[in-house]
Amino acid sequence: MNVDLSLLNPEIAISILGLAVLVLGLIIPKESRHGLGWLTALGLLGVLGLTISGWNNQGTLYHGMFIVDQYAIFFKITFLTAAFLVTLGSMRFVDDMGDQSEYYSMMLFATLGMMVLASAGDFITLYLGLELMTIAFIVLVCFKRLDGKSVEAGMKYVLLAGMSSAVLLYGLSLIYGVTGSVTISEVGRAVAVTPVPALILGLVMLVAGLGFKISAVPFHMWAPDIYEGAPTPVTSYLAVGSKAASFAILLRVFVAALPGIWANWTMLVAVLSAITIIVGNLVAIPQTNIKRLLAYSSIAQAGYILVGLVTASEQGIKGVMFYAFLYVFATIGAFTVATYFYNVTGSDEIKDYAGLSQRSPLMAVVMLICMLSMAGIPPLAGFVGKFYLFKTIVDNYLWLAFIGLIMSMVSVYYYLRVALVMYRDEPLDNSPINLSTPVAVTLIIAMVATLFIGIYPGPLSQVINMAAHSFFMH
Amino acid sequence: MVDFAMQHAWLVPLLPALAFVVIVFLTKPWQKLSALVAVAGIVGAFVFAALAAYGVFTHPEFTEGSLVYGVRWLSMPGLHINVGIMLDPTSAMMIFMVSLVSSLIFIYATGYMKGDPGFSVFFSYVSLFAASMLLLVLSSNLLEMFVGWELVGLCSYLLIGFYTHKISAREAAKKAFVTCRIADFGLLLGMLSLQIVFGTLDLPELAQKIAHFHQYTSAGVLTLIAVLVFLGPIGKSGQFPLHVWLPDAMEGPTPVSALIHAATMVVAGVYLVGRMLFLFSEIPSAMELVAITGAFTALFAATIAITQREIKRILAYSTVSQLGYMMLALGVGSLSASMFHMWTHAFFKALMFMGAGSVLTALHHKADVWEMGGLVKKMPITAWTFVVGGLAIAGIPPFAGFWSKDEILATALNSHHYVLFAMGAFTAFLTAFYMWRLIFLAFFGEENPANHPVESPWNMTVPLIILAALATVGGWVGTPWDNVWSQWIFFGEVEHAAPNYGVMIGSVILALAGIYLAYQLYYVDREKVKAKALAERYHGIYTLLFNKYYIDEIYLWFNHAIVDGSAKLFYLFDIYVVDGIIVNGLGAFTRLSGEGLRITETGRLQNYALVFFLGVLIIAVALAFSSPSAAGLLLGGVK
Q1: Which segments of B214-310 does DSSP mark as H helices, in order?
Q2: Same structural domain for residues B540 and B569?
Q3: How far is CA B23 from each of CA A9, A43, B46, rounded to the nearest angstrom?
Q4: Residue B416, by phi and psi: left (phi above 0), alpha (psi -120 to 50) or beta?
Q5: Based on the domain organization, do B629 and B572 belong to the same domain?
Q6: 3-class DSSP state for residue B498?
Q7: Phi, then psi, of B527 in degrees rounded to 5
């Protein structure tokens, strides 16, 4: 069998980049290490280009252990875009924190983990990618060693992530026990023949393990504490990248490996999605800290994305991919504003955002647009995304669509509360906030992308149609 | 280059739209730069429009079909919305005319708006205004057109109320917006019905399907749709009874009045009816409705214009009246005559509004024509260009208005609409009379010693001169003997009436009679004794006309008595039932449940782990109960 290693180009490239950043950090003097941020950003851009150029180069490696289809490639593009934007928007934050080379290399290894996860063709690769990503994130979460909150968040993440991994592994081993295979496609064939109770138990454990990563209720308890404690850029990457990667593998496992027992899990996913949407949105209301607010809002967003899994159809997959992609821009836009605001003022409290529209019109407008997009207000991207997601379920799960609709209305309340503070209240401190160029670029990219996808979703929709189609090709 | 312009006609609305964005986000603090950006945007649009129009009018095949291209904007099973460009002789003429007149108005505005604190904002709004209109004109899809349509409405609101410190301006802006919104609701319903019945809003596709509408629906439904669609133009083009906003719209800066009246706003309604003529022409009764509305509006507004005193108000009623002519032409089935009148009207009406603006600047916004007089001596360019406009609108050959008005009257006569023809002809007489009343009162006769007018600067007079030239020669493309116009712009068959000398001579005589009467009453009779005596003798009629038939008062009464009354009732219901019980109750419930759920977030690891495992357990049990195949789980039967 021919092994076409060119399929692995992006993964190889990002590994080299990560190692290079790590080694360079040891070699170059401390004062010039801020250049590592630029190296990482440009390197990510290069890997992104490499990934995009391999769009038509599809195939599987190592007897189905590693799948490179357009579905996986699309998710890799999503991760790399997110990583690039986070890096670009957080250089000053990282420079203030110090230890740039460790930070950036961990960031790159987390990205590598996500890419492996998106391409995972069997449970071993799945677990490998998942752990690579998780361990890198654990390091990143407690990166501010001297900050009690950050360290506490790191400890909590280690323990809870370990627990969820254990549950996941248990589930995987049950499925292996029943089907005798770890390859997703073979499991799919075996499950179709022999649905047995143990499989259901395995399924539940899988839901729990991956539900933890996407912070679906009731496996979401960790998220607000860790989102609040972690350095803000890490939070934003955790909210975007880790979640998107987990959705990628969730779809792969459920739609490709477990379609045989679809009847057992479709209602389960629908209910989980509903309570995730409800809890996320309701608890976001009383929050006073912007990071906690965004954490709960991201829980709610995960609930919306789960809707796409309910029907397990090509349209549903398309909805998930579309939403995951636009979610990158909205979330990173909002978090970059929060990061920079923290840099300048040292505060994450919503009340300190008073008069932001006067201090920095761009920051205020990006925050507003990103939040309105998450709330699903046309003509922003979030509206189109929700439209694609809920379109798939109106026939059979109308109640879920109603819950989504009502809770979107609720979400407008807490998003606009932030807008009100930014635009109506008088600032306590009138000094204008000057944006550094990379941050301004990040914000503008996030804003323009959110507007563009919302107004003219056609091209992206076509790309995703191809990608969703490739999912069912093998 | 010509091909490029035709293939990229979307640049025409895009350039002024970009100017809007650039001014708002970048150049706002620098006034001159903002004006430059706006003028560059619209002149660029004009260049592209001119090239595209040249391309269209040198290819005879465009009379057969139009150039349509675009992209799919939204697509899902059962609903496809395309946005694109539809370039045919009609739209090519329109973009040329709109961008040309807008360019001149923009240049004029650089002089008129000088020193205004909102200078940059003004130019950003007018750029968006022009962009919206150009988008509307070029649209290949009704929904896309509607976007332009609503943007035009929004811009008119912003610009009419531009002097936000004036209460009258704010009120006028609201009036314009609300009146148009009422009409737009009808249009929206009509569009929805079209989408439901025919499954598309693409103009070319609709035209094909409506030609065989019996396969889709009954004539009754189509009549209803046509009436609903027509409501939009009634509002936007100031037709009776929704004309009330247009005279008040002069509260905005004068260049805005010129834009609204000549190029960007009111003609949108006429244009929409023209674009949708394939719908109206299927329903004879709808055509009659359009024709009667038009003729009635023409006459009705002309009678009001006779008694008005403010210079811009007279012009505003004259616009309403002229728009009536355009509707009349469409109603009797001639797209050609209607568009032709729109074309000539754009030139002379922009000319007259900008002339009025020049006068107002010179007189420090003293608007009453009775207090002017003799301005020709101090402001010769403004006065003589205004006279050209007056000759054009009165219909004196060879000025532009003569040819187009003659075409409309001849078409009405040829289609055997004798009553409408008579109304049109009488309106022609009134038009000449009230317009020349204005001219004699304001520009001739004795000077008012209280005024110290000076001629306006070059950037205001040059556009006037160019427009005066256009108002003179603009009609020569459509003379009855060699009617190039109707060979290009027509609906169905090439429509062209043979030269009707009777109509021509008759309309000239009527126009001259009107001018002569004005001359006698307001020029020869220096003390205006006869005019005042006439007003005294027919006091009742005079007051009725001066108060515009009390239409505004009737609407106000209706608002106070019925709308406000029922609103009060709903208000009580709203605060006590809806707000008190439903909204606040729900809000409190939502907030409280948020607070309640928040308590679960303890920060303790053990609790989190507990919830996690409980979740696993509950799901497993729930699944076991819900599906028989999993029930074995509970019984301990792991295979």
Answers
A1: 219-236, 245-248, 254-258, 266-275, 277-280, 284-307
A2: no
A3: 46, 36, 19
A4: left
A5: no
A6: coil
A7: -85, 0
Quote the tokens at residue A438.
């990379």
Hey, are the CB atoms on B594 and A458 less than 8 Å from each other? Answer: no
Tell me the two tokens of residue A57. Answer: 């180069």
Per-residue pLDDT, averaged over B230-244, amounts to: 85
Do B521 and B567 fall into the same domain?
Answer: no
Alpha-carbon gap, residue B630 to B624, rounded angstroms: 5
- Looking at B282, B313, B333, the residue that finishes a domain is B282
Task: Please give the Cα distance from B437 to B516 (Å, whole number).
Answer: 10
Residues contacting residue B37 through CB under 8 Å, at least 6 positions apart: B19, B22, B23, B27, B123, B127
Residue B2 confidence (pLDDT): 77
Give the whole-angstrom CA distance, residue B23 versus residue B20.
5
**Cα separations (Å) of A208 from A246, A250, A272, A354?**
12, 11, 11, 40
Spatial neighbors of B142 by CB under 8 A, at least 6 apart, are B191, B194, B201, B202, B203, B206
Chain A residues whose CB is inside 8 A of the B597 CB are: 279, 282-283
Q: Which residues of A touch B605 (CB under 8 A)?
A: 156, 159-160
Instruction: Please check whether residues B593 and B608 belong to one and the same domain.
Output: no
Q: Is B462 on the interface with A (CB under 8 A)?
A: no
Q: Are residues B583 and B616 in the same domain?
A: no
- Inter-axis angle of helices A458-471 and A314-345, to 10 degrees? 120
Give B276-314 pLDDT, tens digit per residue. 888 888 888 888 888 888 888 988 888 888 888 888 888
Minimal CA separation from B515 to chain A, in Å: 55
Integer angstrom CA distances of residue A1 from A62, A125, A181, B159, B189: 9, 20, 21, 72, 64
pTM above 0.80, yes or no: no
Helix (H) or strand (E) segment spanning residue B75: strand B67-76
Facing residue for A264 by CB, picked from B615, B630, B637 = B630
Same domain, B363 and B244: no
ipTM above 0.85, yes or no: no
Domain that holds residue B569: 549-598
Q: Residue A206 and residue A251: Cα distance in Å, rounded?
A: 12
Q: Which of B424, B194, B434 is nearest to B329 (CA)?
A: B424
What's the token pair of residue B463?
């556009």
**Among B130-144, B416-430, B593-607, the least confident range:** B593-607
pLDDT of res. A379: 83
Instruction: Give the chain A residue whose CA is nearest to the CA of B589.
Output: A282
Q: Is the pLDDT score of A304 beyond 80?
A: yes
Report CB contact under 8 Å: A457, B74: yes
Q: Chain A residue with minimal CA distance to B627?
A: A264
In what helix (H) or strand (E) does residue B73 lie, and over which residues does it extend?
Answer: strand B67-76
Amino acid at A75: F
How many CB contacts within 8 angstroms connect chain A with chain B?
108
Tokens of A203: 């399924």
Instruction: Find the chain A residues whose C-beta atoms sit closer than 8 A to any C-beta of B.
Output: 156, 159-160, 163-164, 167, 178, 195-198, 200-201, 203-205, 207-208, 211-212, 218-219, 221-222, 224-225, 261, 263-264, 267-268, 279, 282-286, 391, 410, 413, 456-458, 461
A178, A200, A268: residue with CB nearest B633: A200
Rounded Cα–Cα distance for residues B157 and B152 (Å):
9
Closest-CA residue of B relative to A217 is B615
Half-sphere exposure (Cβ direction) of B105: Cα atoms closer than 13 Å: 36
**Do B306 and B321 reside in the same domain of the chain?**
yes
Q: Write out pLDDT tens, residues B533-587.
A: 777 777 777 777 777 777 777 777 777 777 777 777 777 777 777 777 777 777 7
